[in-house]
User: Fold these one by one.
Assistant:
Number 1:
Amino acid sequence: MAFTSIAAKSDSARSVGSFEALSWLFMRASAVLLLVLVLGHFVIMHVVTGVDQVNYSFVAARFATPFWRSYDLLTLLLGLAHGLNGTRIVIDDYVHSRRWRVFWMSGLYGVGLFLTIVGSLVILTFQPQA
Amino acid sequence: MLQYRGREGMWAWLLHRVTGLGVVAFLCLHILDTVLLGWGPDVYDAVVQIYHLPAVRVLEVVLAGAVLFHATNGIRIICIDFWSQGAEYQRLMLYLVAAVTAVSSVALGYLMLRPLF
C-alpha cells in the first residue's frame, strides 16, 4: 500500500468499465431489486404467514410453484453477491498485511462459493419427501 | 475511526457497514438452515423450531430493523450518487432515513410479535 500509488489507483477506479466501477454500479442496481425481494420475503414469512407456520410442509407447498423457486433463487444470488461484495470492500479497507489479506479473501471466496453452490442446489433440486 | 469527528454522515456510513455485515452473517446462517431441507421433515422442522422461540423472534425484529436501516440508507446513498442535488440534501435525507427506519421497525415489530400476546 504505497502512498505514491493513490493517484494512479483513483484514476483507474474512476474509469468506466474498471472492476471497481462495475462493483459500484452492481451494488446500486442489485440494491434496488433486493429492496423489493428481501422486504417482500420478510413480510411474507413474518407478517402474512407468521414465522411459527414456516416448516417443512410450508416450504414444500411453496416450492411446488416455479415462481417462488425463481423468486428465492434470484434473492439468494443477488443477496449473496451484494453481501459478499460488501464484505470484500470492508476487508479491503481494514486488512492491510499481505498474509491476512490472503487469509480473509480466500476465506470469503471459499465460503461464498460454497454457500452459492449449496444454496442454489437446494432451491433447484428440492423434492418433498412423502 | 473515532479520531475523525465526522458528523451524522460518518455514523450513517458506520451503521451501514455494521448492519450490512450483520445481515450477511444472518444470510449465511439462513442458507445453512435451508440446506437441511435435504435431510427431510424431521431434521428441518427440529432446527427451524428455533426461529419460533419468543426470544429468537425478538432477535428477528432486530434483524428487520437492520434490514430497514440498510435499505432506506441505501436509497439515500443512491440519491447522493445519482441526484444532482443529492449531496446537498444528504443530512436532511438521513433524518428521513432515521424516521422511516424507526416508524417501520416499530410497525413491523408490532406485527411480528403480536401473535405472542
Number 2:
Amino acid sequence: MSTFNLDVYMPVVILITLAVLVAGGSILLGSIIRPHHPNQLKESAYECGEEPIGTAWANFNVRFYVIALIFIVFDVESALMFPVAAIFKKFNEIGLGGTLLLSILTFTLVLVAGIAYCWKKGDLDWVKSFNAPQVNASKDK
Amino acid sequence: MNSTVVTYLSQSKEFSSVVSWLTNLLGFDATSFVAFVIFAIGCLIVVGALATIGGLGTYAERKISADLQMRQGPNRVGPYGILQFLADGVKMILKEDIIPSQADRFTFILAPFLCMVGVFATLAVVPFSSGFMLADLNAGVFYLIGMASLVGVGVFLGGYSSNSKWSMLGGMRGASQIISYEIPGTITIISIVLLAGGLSFKTLISGQGGLPQEWYLFHNPFAFMGFFVYFTSALAETNRAPFDLPEAESELVSGYHTEYSGMRFGLFALAEYIEVFVVCGVAVALFLGGYKVPFDLGSGKILVEKLGLDSMFAQNIGQLLELGSFFTKTLLLYYVVIWVRWTLPRLRVDQLMTLCWKYLTPVALFNLIGCAVWMYAFNGKSIYSLIFESAVTVAGHH
C-alpha cells in the first residue's frame, strides 16, 4: 500500500453522504405523512405569545465579535503548533528535543503575551466595568 | 501503515479469494471496489449503532435524571420504557413542519444538515478497536477538531436564520461558547500529541497500555490536569449543562432551536447526543487508554499460545475484548456527563467566559509547557516507570 492512499478517505465521503441521506430522508419521509396546515400565526416567530416586534436581525452586542477576534488569533497559533507537537517525540529520541522545546516555548510565549495583552486591556471581561456609564451594563443578560 | 477495517479483514483468506474472484469476473483489479463495499457496510453499522446510542442517550438522560431526583422516569413504552426513543422518533416525524415566514429559508433548512454532517464525519476516526476503525487518517485528531467545529456553524446558522430574538441570542451564545472552548480543548490535545508523537488515533493509543498506570492520564501531572481541562471544554463544546447557555430553557425558551419543530429539531438533538458520545470516545482515546485491554489480550497472541486457537479466531476474540473495553469506558464517561448535568446549576455568560479565558486557557498553556519539558527532561518516561526504575535502583543498592 502506498504511503498516500486516497482509499483511506473513502469512509469520510460515505459518512458525509449518509448524514445528508439520513437527515434528508427523515424529513422527506415526514413530508408524506405529516399534516400541513400553515397559517399566519403559526408561521410568525415566537415571542411569548405577543406579536413579534421588528426583526431579530439587528445590531448585536459587540462583545461577541471581540471574542471571535481573540479566537482567530489563538486558533491559528494552535493550528501552527500541531506539526511541532507531532514530531517532538521522534526528534527527542535522536537528541534534537532541545531545539523543538525552544520553539514550543517561543510559540507559547507569543500566546501568553497575547492573552496577557487581552487580559490587561479588559477584553476578557464580559462586563468591563460597572462604574462606567451604563453603556455596557444595561444590555447584560 | 494504515489500519482500518479493510486492512484488518484483508488478513483473512476469504478476502483475497473474494478479490481474485471479482477481479476475474469484472476484468479489472477489484481491491478498491471490495474496500468500498466493506467501508460502506462498516459506515452503515457505525451510523446505525451510533444513532441507536444517541437515541438511548435521550432515554438514559431522562432515566438517570429521574433516578437522581427519586422519580420513575419513562416507563410506559417497552420494558422499563426503553423503547421511548423510538416513540419519540415516530412522534417527531409525524409532527407538522413549520418554517417561520420571516425566516431565511435556505439557511434555516441548511443548519440541521450542517450539524449532522459535522457529527457523522467525526465518526470516521473514532477508534472503536484496533481492527474496527473506519479511517485511520494520519491527521486524525486534527481532522476531528475541524469537522466538529461544523456543529458550531450549524448552531449559529440555526439561531441566525430563524429571525426570532430567542434563537438569535441562543445562536450568538452558542457560537461564542463553542469557539471559545475550542481553544483550551485544542491546546490540551496538542499536549497529548506531544506525548504520543503523532496525530493519528492509532499512534495516540499505541503509546498507552491496558492498565491504568500506562494511560496518558497518569503519564505525568500535567496530563492529569489536562484531562479535566479537556473534559470541561468538551462539555461546553457540546452545549451540555452546566454550559447549556445556547439552549437555556429558563431564560431563552429553547435557544437556537426555538423555531425548529418536528424532525428538524430531532436532527439537532440526535447530533448533540451522538457528539457527546464522540467527545467521550476521544477523551477515552487520548487519556484513558482507548481500546487497550490489559495483559495484551487484544492481539490474541496469548490465546494462540496457551489455548492453541486458530490465529484469526483468536484475533477476532481480541477485537471483541477491545470493543468491550472502549465502549465500557466511553459509556462510563457518558454517564458522568449526564450526572454532571443533573448536579450542577447553569453558569452565567460572564462566568462562562471567565472560566474559559482566565482559568482553562492559561492552565492548558501551562500543561502544554509542562508536558514538553517533561518529555525533554525524562525522555518521555511516565511517572510510574520513573518511580518503578528508581525503586529498582534503590533495591539494587541494598
Number 3:
Amino acid sequence: MTQESFVDFQNVWLAYNDELLAENHFAVEDINLQVKQGEFIAIVGPSGCGKSTFMKLTTGLKMPSKGRILVDGQPVTGPLKISGMAFQASSLLPWRTTLDNVLLPLEIVEPYRSNFKRNKAEYAERARKLLNTVGLGGYEDKFPWELSGGMQQRASICRALIHEPKMLLLDEPFGALDAFTREELWCILRDLWTEQKFNVILVTHDLRESVFLADTVYVMSKSPGRFVVKKEIDLPRPRDLEITYTPEFTNIVHELRGHIGAMRKTGAAINP
Amino acid sequence: MNKKSLESWSPWILLLLSILIWEGLCRAFNVSEFIFPSPSRIAQQTIEYRDVIAGHAWRTYWVTMVGFGIAIVVGVLLGFIIGSSRLAYAAVYPLMTAFNALPKAAFVPILVVWFGIGIGPAILTAFLISFFPIMVNIATGLATLEPELEDVLRVLGAKRWDVLVKVGLPRSMPYFYGSLKVAITLAFVGTTVSEMTASNEGIGYLLISAGSAMQMGLAFSGLVVVGAMAMLMYELFSYIEKRTTGWAHRSSQGE
C-alpha cells in the first residue's frame, strides 16, 4: 500500500536568472524529495542555504530551471492556491483589525472571492473560530499593533489557514519570539496540524523545533544548496513539551547538530 | 500649567513674544514705517483695509484651492502609475525630478502668453509647484511593499491590481496626507508669486501695489494673511490625517 506522494520533487535545480544559469550557479541543486499526504516536514540549515528558495519552488512562485515538481499529482505551473504561507515577520496590515487581516485571503482567492460580500458573516464566523482555537478569542477587533509578537504570529498563521489550504508553508515563523512564547506556539501548531492534517513544510534553524514538530527533518547545506540528510523522527505522537527533555529527543537533536557541524567544517575548508 | 498644555500653547507664546520684541525694537530705534512697520501699525492698516484685504485673500484662497485640487488629481494619478510599474518609474522619475528643479516663478511669463493675465497662470503655477510632493509620496507608498506579504497574496492568485488596492493604496495613505500638508503650503507660494506679475487681483497683486505705493503696513498684512491661510489649511489636513490614518501615528499618540 504505497501512498501517492503529495509533494514530489524530481531532480530540481534552480538558478535565479539566465546569467547565473549560464555560469552553472544554482541556488538549490538536485533536490529530490517525496512528501506523503499530511506529512509534517521540517527543513533545517544555515541561513542563506536556499530554504526560502525551496518554499518558493513548492508554492509555484518560482519555476525550476531543471527538473520537475508535482504537487497533489499535478505539475506545478504557477502559484498554488492550495497553499498558505506565514513568515518570520507577521506582516499583518496595520489598518485592518485582526479579524479583517485573517479574512484577507478570502477576499482574493477563488471560490471565496466571488461571494465574499454575500457570505461575509459566515466567513467571519469561521475566522472567529480559528482565532479562538489559537487562543486569540476576544482579540478579533484589536489592531495588530495592539497585540504582542506571539499573538501577531498566531494571527498570521490563522491568515495562512483561513482558506483551508492543503499545504502550510512556514518560513521561520517563530524565529523572532522569546523561548517561552515559541514553545507555546509549537503546541498550537501541533494541535492545528493534528486536527486538520494538512501538509506542513516548516523552514527553521531551530533543531529542537524541527524535531519536536516534524515527521521528517531534512538538513540542507549551503552553496551548493542541497539536501544532505533525511532523518525520520519516530518519536511517538501525540508529543508533549516534556518529550524535549527526554534522552531520545536530545539524541536526535544532537545527531542533527553533528551533521550541521560537519558541514560547517568542510565548508570552512573549501572557503577558508 | 502642565507639560502637555505648555506644549500646545508654545507656538502662540512664541508668536506673542516675537511680536512684542518686534514692536519693542521698532519703538526703541524709532524705525520708519516705510522701512519696517511695527506690528501695531500692521494691525491698524489691516483693520483699515480689511474689506480690500478680504477680497484679495478670498481670490487667492480659491485660486489656490483650484490649483491644489488639480495637483491632487494629477499627483495621485502619476504617483499611482510610477509607483505600480517599475518601467514607468524608471522612465518618468528622472524627468520629473528635473522638472521639479525648475523655478516655478519662471513659468509665469510663459503662462501669461498662453492664458493671459488673470486666474489661468495663478491656478497653473499653484498646480505646478504642488503636485510633485503628492506624486512622490504616493509612489513611495506603493513601492514599499514587504516581499513576504506579496508572496502571501501572490500564492493565492492575487493580481497586481489586488495587491495595489488591498495593500498598496491603504499603505500609501499616511504618505499621501503627509504630502498634502507640504503641498498646500507650496500651492499658496505658487499662487502668490504668479499674482505678483500676472494678475490684477489676489494677495500677490496686493503686495506689489502696496509696495509701490509705499504702504508697507498693508504689504505686511498681505504676507500675514497668506501665512495664516496656509497655516489653517495645514492644520486642517493634519487633523484629517490623524483621524483617518491613526494606525500610522500610534506611537506619537502615546497609546
